[in-house]
Amino acid sequence: MKAFSMWMACAILLFATFVPSASAFAEARGNADKETGKLKSAIVIEQDTGKILFKQNENKELPPASMTKVMTLLLIFKALQNHQISLKDKVNVSEYAASMGGSQVFLEPGESMTVDEMLKAICIASANDASVAMAEHISGSEKAFVAQMNKEASKLGMTHTHFVNPTGLPTKNHYTTAHDMAVMARALLKYPQVLHYTSKYEDYLRENTDKKFWLVNTNKLIKTYPGADGLKTGFTNQAKYCLTATAQRSGMRVVAVVMGAASPKERNKEIAGLMDNAFAAYVTKPLLNKNKTVAMAKVNKGDHAQVPIVTQQPAVLLLKKGESTKGLKKSVKIDKSLQAPIKSGTVVGRFIVKKKGKVISQTPLVIKDNVKRASWWQLFKRSAGTILTH
Hints:
- It comes from Sporolactobacillus shoreicorticis.
- Helix content is 35%, strand content 27%.
- It is built from 12 helices and 16 strands.
- It has a 5-stranded antiparallel beta sheet, sandwiched between helices. It has a 5-stranded antiparallel beta sheet with strand order 11-12-16-15-14, with no helix packed on it. A two-stranded antiparallel ribbon has the order 3-4.
- β7 and β8 (240-249) form a beta hairpin.
- The N and C termini lie far apart (114 Å).
């Protein structure tokens, strides 16, 4: 028995030597939580360049809840830009749209509101009924609109996203990632008009009726975080508390996404901290404005001999604070063979910035105007003019 007792004592001593105590394990876990928070996924990007400033499980597929409406809004603003719809259009509410649960503005079957009012309802109150009403107004049915959502996601390169509805109400096979949400938000922010709606803390619907409805923004950061002006919250029991937020300071705009926070307080605290770190560490340096002409290019058989090539978006450098901009080399690279006809906005080259031989910025260059195919008479006069000058 003495020998057995001695053996057990040695075994316990060895175990204690090589295995951390429960308290030590808890301490290590606590430190990890301090570093990563209690989020399932997160990302921070700079808007103009799309550079990732922070990421954590950014490709983890998760339910986005009402952050889904970022894509719904993107398609609405695309339809507005293409003159498919206008802000003054009346949107009729179907019985199906009015039946949506969750966040809503209590639209009634047969009721009509303008697109402008529907945008208020979606952006400020996260209204599911308004989202479905707009989906039906644009595409004819919710199903057709969802197909358009998934097509747009594919076009944007969102490889870990699939939509089943335009609201984010819980359903199978409806998921995205923090990374894809950031890509989606960045695309939406190319329509600055959206911030007119998402930056409002409160507003009203049916203001001049006895059914006046008060809208209060679900994104409290726009009231508490300096520079915040959007974008979209989300919550379901499965998704927990999510937020895609954007803020701008000193000309630099960041987009931050958090998914799976335990509470609204935790969600807002985490995303504010992420954006604070981004603004503390980085600055942007504008180089060229959007639509800035950087070159003239020849288009084979075009109705104009040369056409302006412009920046598709602002050319911006993202720099760490204190980083020098000396030694930058800028160049314009245009595709060699441009053939008419070409639509306005077609990408035909890049504005490139290098530092010490490394590319640090690339801005797409596009055709400014539509280029039609030249008539035979235009081509004849052009050829004759060339011959005469020689």
